[in-house]
Amino acid sequence: MLQDKVENLLKEAFQENNSLFLIDLNITKDNKISVVIDGDNGVSVNDCIAVSRKVEHNLDREEEDFSLEVSSAGVSEPLHLERQYRKNLGRKLQVTTNNEKIEATLTEVDQNGIKLNWKAREPKPVGKGKHTVQKELVLPYSEITDAKVMITF
């Protein structure tokens, strides 16, 4: 019952600020509510406060005792949703599949998957030495086991 109430309150909060979206909702047996959000334009402290207030002010502590934590997805967190990939277009990602790990620029996103571009050094087709080639890969979401934004300094 608490789960349904919280989900409905979060939907209302995201309707009020439609640039925000839910990444994860977890409610433990002792009513510790943990909400992780993300936003198309990032997430500010005020965004977390607004979502927290929306939930906390509409639940009755007399009815059920609870604790609430609202946080944003950290930079080291993996990408899960198409919307997260979309907001990171043009950025460098580290993507892991069952077969390989790729560091590449995210160039396209759609409902089926992503497109990555990168340069690689490969042996020349004729002769000795290596040359640089432009690589491109289209990956369906089902083949991605982990994807993280790479932070470069």
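That was protein one. Protein two is written in the same sequence-then-structure order:
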Amino acid sequence: MTTKGTRRHFKPEFKKDAVALVSEQGYSIPTAAEAVGITANNLRRWIKELKLEESGVRLDAGERAELDRLRRENKQLRMEKEILKKASAFFAKEMK
């Protein structure tokens, strides 16, 4: 019987520090991955993700949170606008 493994989550600071081992300190990807206790594939993916974030192609966590907040706010404002439109049409009929 095998046990189901749990997925580990890493903080953004940890990811940036691991990527810095390769990009700033010259470690090889396998060596850096072993030093911080992750797989080389994880580290390769983090390097790719960080490059995309820095180039502006991909949103970082703060930008993603702000985008989500703005989308919720936009949805709320659209609903309020629809309600006001219906209410003004209703009262316009009442005034005639």
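The CA atoms of residues 29 and 40 lie 6 Å apart. Keep this in mind for the problem set.
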